[in-house]
């Protein structure tokens, strides 16, 4: 660690580097016919440790691409991404994050327990420690009775909970989630959201959550990042102040503050004049 | 719950149909006075089968051994070839026309050639015919299975920083197993059929194929049918053992239909 003063704009909490810090990130997908597709352009985003940030926007706005860049599943064509002060690549190798996708992506030939233990197994964690950790996680997601079942024997919601448990296996400080509840029905979805809020409060992990549901983003997040397509860029960042996780019960979904935040995100998303300076939105026409 | 309810349907119904068919057959032979060389009655076949069960058993052992050796060789070579073709796609491109040709020609047609190559007094030709017949379905299905890795699993393994070998062991190989068994199930019956038909083209006596032809040649039709029955049972044993092996190796498939 150098003793140099932290970069301007960095908050006082400089002892802990930001969970995610993206600077001037761009991603161009080269297509064979020469017509390159700019998926992301000039994205700057800093996410504090323990913060829950949602990325929301229409299809093609690059929100999943941004998540994949943070996860180092793709590399940016310009700019840089740091995760807990390391390069994205190093962070991936060091298992600094856990990840969950829209598809649960469980291995069907492994039991629920051994699916959760997969990352631990790959990183040579001992058998007894693995069993202890998976029992803990099974309890956390409420699936202790299903440890020895196979994924095909579970409902979609349960499979997704297993995937979340798996993403938490190595107690990461950062969770990356790409529409994890996208394939679930509304009822299950709301229950999963409530559970996720509780799990995040218990683990203290920062979360980057990709979604295209406005209520979902508002309910879960500290900040909602609104993105616009072609080229994908950040249009707006809306702080949602609905209180800390403990207070976020089902009642919140009917609170005025919740609706106000939903309206704010919706107006930003649709580029409607909300009294806010909409200059950037106009620029893009 | 569901399994016990469907048990009568899945097991009893086919048995009932079989019994009915055999009864009708017996009735037809007796009432219509069908000559034994046209169609022997089930009762006479059963009598012949039980009186010559030891020779049917001995013949089944010979043919079964050929089929088993062919199945093992064909399956092992098929699996290895599929792995090589996955790792080195160039080998797949080179061998694609050959495999396509091999899957079209009836392999037993090669039996006479093999007899002259390896000697008509040896079982080698039959085993080789069976191995070749087995190779094709095992190779093609395993290859497909190995290429089946889902993108989400690949992403996941990359996110875990897993090595190529770890990914192969944790995702690619287990993912190919169901496909391998589809190939093996087809191959298990093919191995018996090929080993048996191979006997029609020459080679030493003693197997089921030779026994069927010699019984038929000496007008002992009931005995010929008794050997045919033996061949059916042998084929069933191969199929059921393969199926059992599949259940053993992939318990998640057996239990997936439970709830």
TrEMBL record, chain A:
| InterPro entries assigned | AAA+_ATPase, ABC_transporter-like_ATP-bd, ABC_transporter-like_CS, ABC_transporter_ATP-bind, P-loop_NTPase
Residue ranges of every copy of the ABC transporter domain listed in the record: 20-254
Keyword presence, ATP-binding: yes
Cite the SMART domains for this sequence.
AAA (SM00382)
**Gene3D superfamilies found in the cross-reference section:** P-loop containing nucleotide triphosphate hydrolases
The UniProt GO MF terms for this protein read: ATP binding; ATP hydrolysis activity
Keywords, sorted A to Z: ATP-binding, Nucleotide-binding, Transport
Protein name stated in the entry: NitT/TauT family transport system ATP-binding protein
Organism from which the protein derives: Agreia pratensis
From TrEMBL, chain B:
* Keyword hit for Nucleotide-binding: no
What does the record give as the organism's lineage?
Answer: Bacteria, Bacillati, Actinomycetota, Actinomycetes, Micrococcales
Transmembrane regions listed in the UniProt entry: 12-32, 67-91, 98-118, 124-140, 179-202, 222-245
Name under which the protein is recorded: NitT/TauT family transport system permease protein
Cellular component GO terms, alphabetically?
A: plasma membrane
- UniProt keywords, alphabetically: Cell membrane, Membrane, Transmembrane, Transmembrane helix, Transport
What GO terms in the biological process aspect are recorded for it? transmembrane transport
What InterPro entries does its record include? MetI-like (IPR000515), MetI-like_sf (IPR035906)
Q: What's the family?
A: Belongs to the binding-protein-dependent transport system permease family.
Places the protein is found: Cell membrane
Q: Which organism is it from?
A: Agreia pratensis
Q: Where is the ABC transmembrane type-1 domain?
A: 56-242
The UniProt entry lists the main location of this chain as membrane
The membrane topology noted for this protein in its Swiss-Prot or TrEMBL record is:
Multi-pass membrane protein
